[in-house]
Amino acid sequence: MRFLCLYKPAQAEGIRPAQEDMEEMGKFVEEMMRSGKLVATEGCLPSVKGARVRLANGKFGVVDGPFTESKELVAGFALLQTDSKEEAIELTKRFLKVAGDGETEIRQVYEAGDLDVPCSRDQVQGAQLVEK
User: Where does the YCII-related domain lie (predicted)?
Assistant: First the structure.
């Protein structure tokens, strides 16, 4: 199973981590890559260098950064290969211990053969959260 993890830090955008924190993160990333659990990871540049593109009623809108809602900004991502969602959660907890306060959204990546995924937009919009 593959999971996309989107990291949203608690601190303001553009604050550089301390050198020792960067070294600790480097060791963690290296360990996860060697284990085969981490497929890819990257950090994002500040939102001032980005844009948001929206389509509504057939019309595109583009808003250049910076974006004001910093608590919703994605600062980086990781693509994990794990045996379960629970394992992805445990690896994410380890990541957050190194990265510091913030939030990571974990989303399973669709793979051919996934039978329990809704088939239509109506089913997706009507889906309810079910605790497993």
Answer: 1-111
pLDDT in tens, 30-69: 999 999 999 999 999 999 999 999 999 999 999 999 987 6
Q: What is the three-class DSSP state of 25?
A: helix
Provide the pLDDT for residue 37: 98
- Written as one string, the DSSP assignment of 66-124 is P-S-GGG---EEEEEE-SSHHHHHHHHHHHHHHH-SEEEEEEEPP-TT--SS--SHHHH
Q: What are the residues facing 76 on neighbouring strands?
A: 7, 43
Residue type, 93: K
Class of domain 2-126: alpha beta
CA angle 91, 32, 47 (to 5 degrees): 75
pLDDT of residue 54: 95
Contact 79, 7 (CB under 8 A): no
pTM summary value = 0.79
Q: Residues of 21-49 as b/e, b for ≥16 C-beta within 10 angstroms?
A: eeeebeebeeebeeeebbeebeeeeebee
CA angle at 124 for the pair 7 and 108, rounded to the nearest 5°: 35
